[in-house]
C-alpha cells in the first residue's frame, strides 16, 4: 500500500490522529530487528525514557500535569467567580430593596397626586355649587325685577288711566261748574227779579 492518500498537512495530521500514529515515538518507526539492536546499546535510563515514550506514559503525564494546572487555574477562577457572585447577589439584594423603596415612593407620589386631584375637583365642585346658587339667586332677582317692572308698567298705566279719568272728570267738573255758574247767575237773576 504505497499510494499517496493526501498531500495536505491537515489531512495527514487528521489521519495520524485517527489511527494514533506517533511519528516522534521510536516504537512506531522501528521494525523489530532495529528495535532489538537499539535496546541493547542503550543504558537503563534511556530505556526507561523509551518505554515511557512507547507506552505514551510521558504524554499522559504531561497531560495530567497540564490538567492539574488547569484544574488549579479553574479552581482559582471558581473561587473568584463565587466571590463575585456573592457580591453580585448582595448588590442585587440592595438594588431590590432600593427598587422597592422607589416603588413605594412612586406609589405614594401617585396617591398624593390622586388626593390632590380629588381635592382640586372638590374645590371645583364647591365653586360650581356656589355658582349654581348665585345663578339661581340672579335668575330669581331677574324674575323679581321683571315682576317689579311689570308692576311699575301697570302702575304707570293705572296712573295714566287715572290721570286721564281725572282730566276727564276735571273737564266734566269744569263744564259742570261753568253750567252751575251760569245756572246760579240765572237763579240769582231770577231771584232778583
Automatic annotation (TrEMBL):
<keyword id="KW-0158">Chromosome</keyword>
<keyword id="KW-0539">Nucleus</keyword>
<dbReference type="GO" id="GO:0005524">
    <property type="term" value="F:ATP binding"/>
</dbReference>
<dbReference type="GO" id="GO:0030915">
    <property type="term" value="C:Smc5-Smc6 complex"/>
</dbReference>
<dbReference type="InterPro" id="IPR027417">
    <property type="entry name" value="P-loop_NTPase"/>
</dbReference>
<feature type="coiled-coil region">
    <location>
        <begin position="124"/>
        <end position="168"/>
    </location>
</feature>
<comment type="similarity">
    <text>Belongs to the SMC family. SMC6 subfamily.</text>
</comment>
<keyword id="KW-0233">DNA recombination</keyword>
<dbReference type="GO" id="GO:0000724">
    <property type="term" value="P:double-strand break repair via homologous recombination"/>
</dbReference>
<keyword id="KW-0067">ATP-binding</keyword>
<keyword id="KW-0175">Coiled coil</keyword>
<dbReference type="GO" id="GO:0003697">
    <property type="term" value="F:single-stranded DNA binding"/>
</dbReference>
<protein>
    <submittedName>
        <fullName>Structural maintenance of chromosomes protein 6</fullName>
    </submittedName>
</protein>
<dbReference type="GO" id="GO:0003684">
    <property type="term" value="F:damaged DNA binding"/>
</dbReference>
<dbReference type="GO" id="GO:0005634">
    <property type="term" value="C:nucleus"/>
</dbReference>
<dbReference type="GO" id="GO:0035861">
    <property type="term" value="C:site of double-strand break"/>
</dbReference>
<feature type="coiled-coil region">
    <location>
        <begin position="71"/>
        <end position="98"/>
    </location>
</feature>
<keyword id="KW-0234">DNA repair</keyword>
<keyword id="KW-0227">DNA damage</keyword>
<keyword id="KW-0547">Nucleotide-binding</keyword>
Amino acid at each position: 500500500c504505497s499510494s499517496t492518500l493526501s498531500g495536505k498537512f491537515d489531512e495527514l495530521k487528521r489521519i495520524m490522529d485517527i489511527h494514533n500514529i506517533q511519528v516522534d515515538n521510536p516504537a512506531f518507526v522501528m521494525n523489530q530487528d532495529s528495535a532489538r539492536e537499539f535496546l541493547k546499546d542503550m543504558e537503563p535510563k534511556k530505556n526507561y525514557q523509551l518505554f515511557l515514550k512507547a507506552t505514551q506514559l510521558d504524554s499522559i503525564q504531561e497531560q495530567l500535569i497540564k490538567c492539574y494546572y488547569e484544574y488549579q487555574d479553574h479552581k482559582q477562577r471558581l473561587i473568584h467567580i463565587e466571590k463575585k457572585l456573592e457580591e453580585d447577589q448582595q448588590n442585587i439584594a440592595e438594588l431590590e430593596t432600593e427598587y422597592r423603596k422607589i416603588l413605594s415612593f412612586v406609589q405614594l407620589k401617585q396617591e398624593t397626586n390622586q388626593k390632590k386631584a380629588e381635592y382640586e375637583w372638590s374645590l371645583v365642585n364647591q365653586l360650581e355649587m356656589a355658582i349654581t346658587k348665585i345663578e339661581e339667586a340672579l335668575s330669581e332677582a331677574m324674575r323679581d325685577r321683571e315682576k317689579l317692572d311689570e308692576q311699575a308698567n301697570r302702575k304707570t298705566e293705572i296712573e295714566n288711566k287715572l290721570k286721564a279719568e281725572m282730566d276727564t272728570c276735571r273737564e266734566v267738573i269744569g263744564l259742570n261748574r261753568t253750567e252751575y255758574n251760569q245756572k246760579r247767575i240765572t237763579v240769582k237773576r231770577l231771584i232778583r227779579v
